[in-house]
Amino acid sequence: MKWTLKNFSELTADELYEILKLRVDVFVVEQACPYPEIDGHDPAALHLAGWEGETLAAYARVLMPGAVHQDPAIGRVVVRKSHRGKGIARALVEKAKEAAAERYGDIPVHLSAQYHLKEFYASCGFRAVSEPYGEDGIPHVDMRLVVSGGSEGVYFTDKPIQD
Description:
Layout lengths: L1 E6 L5 H18 L14 E8 L2 E9 L9 E7 L8 H17 L3 E7 L3 H6 L3 E2 L4 E3 L2 E13 L2 E5 L6
Parallel strand pairs: 4-5
Antiparallel strand pairs: 1-2, 2-3, 3-4, 5-8, 6-8, 7-8, 8-9
């Protein structure tokens, strides 16, 4: 798997097309959830993509603090159906956490998780900070992770977060 991390302006037209197509294929078509996938937040995001050859296998975006939430946020976490069950989602989340830590430092990271994936994200270090709620007809839960960077590298902790 070849991983790339790019600002919006660094994406080629073909890369952007593949990213948007994968997101629509999964979040709109596969999940039968008609909603505005192109939400205006991509220009301010970092775009993490996992490629197998010419195929976009996995994708996530990292939003800067204040773009949607007070903290930086990881979102649009998606793995192509044909590539699921291979540990790619965990690698994707770990790389997104690293990108957030390297870019924004020792501050909490937000993630709005589909509720059925709550335990997966908990196994990646995120902790639920809300009750379940509906978003576009799908149950979600807000989750947060404290990311710490420093001279000894990046580490993750589930220490309590003060609001």
